[in-house]
Amino acid sequence: MLKRPPMNQDSKTMLLDTVREQHIREAKAEEQRSTLSNAIIKAVECMFMYITLCQAQPTKQNRNTTRNPLCPALWIPCTGKPP
Fold first, then answer.
1. Secondary structure, 3-state, 53-78
2. pTM above 0.70?
3. To pair with 16 at 20 to 30 A between CA atoms, which of 7, 33, 62, 79?
4. List of long-range contacts for 5-14, beta carbons under 8 Å, 24+ apart
5. How high does pLDDT run on average in the chain?
6. Reduced to 3 DSSP states, what percent helix, strand and coil does the chain have, rounded to the nearest 5?
7. 78 CB contacts (<8 Å, ≥6 apart)?
8. Predicted local distance difference test score (pLDDT) of residue 62
């Protein structure tokens, strides 16, 4: 079995720096994935709430649609702009 030659201090430092940089890149990528996942979840929850509370639903009496007056206030946090 062949033995690897001993590493000098510069080689060890370079290897450690490379590994450290890779860990930093992986941590940043994971943080970005987490941030994106959280943003998607928040948007889906927000839209679900808006659809549940604000989509016009027919009344029993006349089948006309009614609208919750709070809907514009609920829509703005979801999209950042009025409906």
1. HHCCEECCCCCCEECCCCHHHHHHHH
2. no
3. 33
4. none
5. 76
6. 65, 5, 30
7. 43, 46, 47, 50
8. 45
